[in-house]
Amino acid sequence: MRIAIQHCFHLSGRLLHTRIARRFPAFTFSLCALALLFANGSAPAAAQANAPKRLLIYSIDVEGGQSTLLVAPSGASLLVDAGWPNNDGRDVERIQAAMKDAGVTRLDHVFITHFHVDHVGGVPELVKRVPVGEFLDHGPNREDSDITRRDFAAYLKAIEGRPRRIVHPGDTILLPGLNVVVLAADGEHISAVPGIKPAPNPYCATERQWPDDPSENARSGGILVTFGKFRFLDLGDLTGAKEVALVCPNNPIPPIDLYVVDHHGMDLSNSRALVDAIHPVVAIMNNGAHKAGMPEAWQTVHDSPGIEDLYMLHTAEGSDAAHNSPEALIANPKGASADGAYFKVVASSTGSFSVTNSRTGQTREYPRK
pTM to 2 decimals? Predict the structure, then answer.
């Protein structure tokens, strides 16, 4: 660019001494502008070609529900859950804001972990506003409750005529540049991840007995996303007994870089046998101001061996200061002028990544160790 500018002005100086330049001064500056146009157009293209490839992950504030957007280096996209219904399309607007930041206008896949309203409720509004390639879910609703039957029916009606795939443990989701494996779905779980040897889990021996859970939470779909050396885990609202069954006596899950805290940080989930075994570097708790973010779950994640930071989408106002993260790690702290701030994760295939709090614009780096 600098060479092009220097050449342009050198050319101008020479032309100004010619008869053509004296008669047609605009000609000189047109040549200069043309040179700058080509220089300015080629440099970004070359820079873009050489730019390192990154995985983008957005933990979107849907007020205690779940909505997580992944955009692969190829530009392929996966949305995990769609938040709540109503509120004038608030949650879908927040999904669209994340999509805009990521530079995508359609969703290749929408994965619904289970059929509770804070995960599936946003789908009817989503399909009105955003093109979707396919919907993925664990199959029929398994919960015997009128509200969940209603939300499942609303989901089926909204996606009628659109591609839908029922996934099972061991299935994969095609996102070029990433490896996405379904670990759990419909109450079942994987015994081994391809290429990873399950290891005995030393945390199982001291794990407490968790109650059986007849709700849709226990049927949650969960995924492991691998991008080179970077690993991301999202198990939806999987509850304690199913978590323990997944990782005990042998744990098929490798060490995790980024963990979406199960069940928004509810005490019904986040067993130590799971959380301690996966050794997350960073965890994000998608709690609401008055939903989840419970002290016991927070403490379990906070104390996990090797964890560096625990982010929260909201201050857990029903908890105390000792069981809330520092304000810099909270997207929407108590007393903030508005909600809707999100966390943006930018990951490299080397395993290093960063987390940006959209409220503050501050970024923390997590180099590969």
Answer: 0.87
